[in-house]
Amino acid sequence: MPTSNPTTVTRAAVRARDLTKTYGSGDTRVVALDHVDVELAEGELTAIMGPSGSGKSTLMHCAAGLDDVTSGQVWVGDTDLTTLDDTRLTLLRREQVGFVFQAFNLLPTLTAEANITLPLRLAGRTPDREWFEHVVRVLGLTDRLGHKPTELSGGQQQRVAVARALVMRPRVIFADEPTGALDSVTGHELLDFLRRCVRELGQTVVMVTHDPGAATYADRVLLLADGRMAGELRHPTADDVLAALRGLGA
Length: 250
Ligand SMILES: Nc1ncnc2c1ncn2[C@@H]1O[C@H](COP(=O)(O)OP(=O)(O)OP(=O)(O)O)[C@@H](O)[C@H]1O
What we know:
The protein is of the alpha/beta class. The chain has eight helices and ten strands. A hairpin with a 2-residue loop joins strand 9 (about 220-225) and strand 10. It is globular, with a radius of gyration of 18 Å. The chain binds adenosine-5'-triphosphate.
């Protein structure tokens, strides 16, 4: 709890106000997000959970500036994404947002190391060698850096994608089912590492997950149902999460 340290002020890394997102029109109109208000605190690991179709991915995509909003506002730090043109939005994503998606989006012709440092180089930044080595060591990738993605297992590719997000030290990392493609041991290792990044480095992480076990790593679990906020849990157990999800009909 930030209140244990009086000099720490909890700031929102990401904020949404009155966020509505609809897809389609007429008979096929779907309200994916329905007037959502939410703040995601800096230096916390937040899990977004809820039944299938409740709007989790849509919330993450709107909050990350990957999808435009129908109405309402979204801030990353002090920047209102809804006021940005495409160029500025691309720059903001590049500089302030890290992504770990299920499709790892690694470039097949590049080595693991080149994939990890690509966003930094695109942003014109020089990799901090010490931090780079720390990240790849903790993720167990040190002896895999010269390999191309096809020469890596699914779990290793996922860890490369996580390293690529972490080396940027972005304001916030959005992770979509980060353990989805991993066996349970590797999944827990990855979550342990994300947890350490949050605790020791103040990294802000937001992940969408269906896994109550993964949610126990979170400081806070936000529950969505039918495109609306349906409650939250702090430092829940897997049973707490299961009970809350059952209450939402998941
Ligand atoms: N591109 C799209 N076009 C039309 N409808 C969409 C689109 N993307 C999402 N939706 C709809 O918006 C609603 C919310 O979808 P979303 O993917 O955010 O849910 P979710 O909670 O992430 O689901 P899941 O757990 O199944 O991945 C759903 O009804 C979905 O069908």
